[in-house]
């Protein structure tokens, strides 16, 4: 049977989803942030820093931060937006009914939805009326994430969004990313210069901060003996990030940069959403052994 446990991670309330086959995911209500994903019979696939604040005082370093309505400092608001700094609500009821977002998860998966809207206390002010729904589903070898944005006001608003996924890896030197060969990217370590990736497989050496516009909807990350296959819909872009050894991040221990890579589905250029309209972005991650 599927179960849902209400727990605490540090001092933060969280929900742990367990699928019938043993797969599980843990989601903090602070930021609706996935902190752990364990496929059936496997180990945790996400990175969470040993030094991350787990008390709501600042953003959590690791897991899958939800970025909305601003990416990085590309706008006048809070860096990476307020969604990851806000306390979300778990939405109860039948999430498999006709109002639910579509899913390709196997029977017996654990599923929960979380909500945030303009009337809730937000991590930073935003002048628009909106409603966010974020669904997390886990089962077998996969994790499925869907973000739905609705304009609940009477005027158009613009937003960016991303799922800033910290993939845990054995060592960054052994990681390869497949699917970006031939793609154009903006190199944020070189003033945002536009470049082309000529290698079929991206090897991660040193600091990486790349924005790939208009990427394929299927990518793969290979590390050690497993492969994470990533499918995205709604999100048009992909960001690849690793801070490298000289990052000096206060919430990251020495050498922890070697234990993760961020590969995130994103919409970097702000989208316009008309009154009453809805946008949905989805991300499916599948963990498979390398053959």
UniProtKB/TrEMBL annotation:
Its Gene Ontology biological processes?
A: carbohydrate metabolic process
GO CC list: cytoplasm
Arranged from A to Z, the UniProt key words for this protein are: Isomerase
Q: What is its EC number?
A: 5.1.3.15
Positions annotated as active site in the UniProt record: 164, 264
Give the InterPro entries listed for this entry: Aldose_1/G6P_1-epimerase, G6P_1-epimerase, Gal_mutarotase_sf_dom, GH-type_carb-bd
Catalyzed reactions: alpha-D-glucose 6-phosphate = beta-D-glucose 6-phosphate
CDD domains membership: D-hex-6-P-epi_like
The GO terms this record gives for MF are:
carbohydrate binding; glucose-6-phosphate 1-epimerase activity
The family note in this entry says:
Belongs to the glucose-6-phosphate 1-epimerase family.
Q: By what name is this protein known? A: Putative glucose-6-phosphate 1-epimerase
Q: What is the lineage of its organism?
A: Bacteria, Pseudomonadati, Pseudomonadota, Betaproteobacteria, Burkholderiales
């Amino acid at each position: 049977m599927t179960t849902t446990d209400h727990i605490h991670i540090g001092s933060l309330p969280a929900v742990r989803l367990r699928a019938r086959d043993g797969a599980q995911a843990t989601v903090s209500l602070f930021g609706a942030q996935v902190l752990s994903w364990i496929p059936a019979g496997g180990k945790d696939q996400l990175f969470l820093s040993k030094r991350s604040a787990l008390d709501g005082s600042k953003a959590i370093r690791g897991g899958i931060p939800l970025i909305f309505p601003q990416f990085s400092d590309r706008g006048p608001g809070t860096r990476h937006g307020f969604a990851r700094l806000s306390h979300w609500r778990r939405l109860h009821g039948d999430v498999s009914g006709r109002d639910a977002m579509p899913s390709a998860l196997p029977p017996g998966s654990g599923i929960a939805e979380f909500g945030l809207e303009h009337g809730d206390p937000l991590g930073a002010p935003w002048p628009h009326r909106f409603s966010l729904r974020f669904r997390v589903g886990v089962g077998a070898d996969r994790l499925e994430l869907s973000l739905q944005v609705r304009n609940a006001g009477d005027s158009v608003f613009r937003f960016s969004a991303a799922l800033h996924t910290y993939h845990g890896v054995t060592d960054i030197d052994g990681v390869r990313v497949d699917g970006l060969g031939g793609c154009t990217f903006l190199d944020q370590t070189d003033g945002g210069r536009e470049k082309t990736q000529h290698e079929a497989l991206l090897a991660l050496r040193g600091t990486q901060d790349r924005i790939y516009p208009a990427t394929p909807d299927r990518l793969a990350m290979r590390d050690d003996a497993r492969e994470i296959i990533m499918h995205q819909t709604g999100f048009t872009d992909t960001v690849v990030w690793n801070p490298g050894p000289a990052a000096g991040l206060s919430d990251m221990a020495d050498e922890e940069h070697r234990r993760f890579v961020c590969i995130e589905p994103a919409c970097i250029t702000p989208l316009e959403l008309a009154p009453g309209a809805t946008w949905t972005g989805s991300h499916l991650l599948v963990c498979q052994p390398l053959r």
